[in-house]
Structures are given as structure tokens and as C-alpha cells.
Write a structure and sequence with these properties.
Blueprint (H helix, E strand, L loop, with lengths): L1 H24 L14 H9 L7 E5 L2 H5 L9 E5 L11 H22 L8 H27 L3 H25 L3
Antiparallel strand pairs: 1-2
Helix pairs in contact: 1-4, 1-6, 4-6, 5-6
Length: 180
């Protein structure tokens, strides 16, 4: 149990640090995302503020209205809106702590599996197994966003680099620390 807890804490830290590098130093954090600038304030004032009021994910066109013959507008989209949040360019302490805790949970899951792998499985295969956790997450969640919601393929590529890269780097530690 100690190996799993140490693996979760250190592996989570490795995931957290990789996330900082991939989002702040590499362009990965921006792949597939656009900006509304220079007309952001006008677009938000006209299309969002006053039209949507609750913290939710909004999809358009409305599938139910389209099914009932309502005309669909140009294109389609996905908007996450939180009217209570402040406009911050940088994450706050609460977000950073939450991200680290989720990274620890992910590393704990990988450590739990790796500590149960047969002792004769080599280091490289254990690292690949850890890396597969990241790819599993992307294939099961992010690829669905591309399929069902039309997310850009660049977004999916970013998630592969981010998740597989983090899982690989954490796996380098976990494959050693979580041996039987």
C-alpha cells in the first residue's frame, strides 16, 4: 500500500509539472482553441450575456428544436459558460490545488495497477502500460468530443500529447516505484 501512496503523490506531481510545461511552455494548451478577439466584448454582450444565465455547457444548434423543424443557424458550437467566475488569464491557487489532487488520483490508479503486475514484466513494458492509461483516457473521452461535438482534430492531438506525455513521464517513475 505504501508503494501505491508514494507512487500517487510523486506520480501526481510529475503529471502536474508536465501539465505546466505542456500548457505554459509548449503550444499544446492552445491547439484547437480560437479566440473571439478583437470583438470578444461585442460578441459576448450580444450573444451570451442576457441569453444564457446558468453555469452550463451550451450546444448549438439545439438538437430538439432542429428535430422539430426549427431552422438551424450557421455552423455548430459548444460553449461553456460560468457567469459567476471572474475573467482571469492565469489559474488561481484553488484551481492549481484541484489540478494537483486530480493528478494524484490518476497516478494512484496507475500505481495500483502497476503494483499488481507480475514481477517478471520488464521496466519498459511497465512504462508502456502506464502510458496506455493516458491514451485510454483520450480515446474514451476526448475522441468522443471530436466525434459527437465537432471539436477540432488539433484539440485531439493536443490531448494525445498532453495525456500520453504525462502518463509516460509519470510511468518512468511508477514503473520503478510500484514493482512487486
Amino acid at each position: 500500500m505504501g508503494k501505491v501512496l508514494i507512487g500517487g503523490g510523486v506520480g501526481g506531481l510529475i503529471l502536474f509539472l508536465w501539465g505546466a510545461v505542456s500548457h505554459m511552455l509548449l503550444p499544446v494548451g492552445h491547439w484547437g482553441f480560437g479566440t473571439l478577439a478583437p470583438a470578444e466584448d461585442a460578441v459576448l454582450a450580444a450573444a451570451v450575456r442576457g441569453s444564457v444565465g446558468t453555469h452550463a455547457i451550451y450546444l448549438f444548434p439545439d438538437a430538439a428544436a432542429s428535430a422539430n423543424g426549427a431552422p438551424a443557424g450557421p455552423g455548430r458550437g459548444f460553449l461553456m459558460y460560468d457567469p459567476a467566475s471572474r475573467r482571469e488569464a492565469e489559474p488561481g491557487a484553488r484551481q492549481l490545488v484541484c489540478e494537483y489532487l486530480w493528478d494524484v488520483v490518476a497516478a494512484l490508479l496507475a500505481a495500483f495497477v502497476l503494483v499488481h503486475v507480475a514481477p517478471d514484466v520488464g521496466y519498459a513494458r511497465r512504462v508502456l502500460l502506464a502510458t496506455a492509461f493516458g491514451l485510454f483516457a483520450v480515446a474514451s473521452v476526448d475522441a468522443a468530443f471530436v466525434t459527437w461535438y465537432g471539436f477540432p482534430h488539433a484539440y485531439l492531438g493536443a490531448q494525445v500529447v498532453d495525456a500520453a506525455g504525462g502518463a509516460f513521464l509519470a510511468g518512468l517513475f511508477l514503473a520503478r516505484a510500484c514493482r512487486r
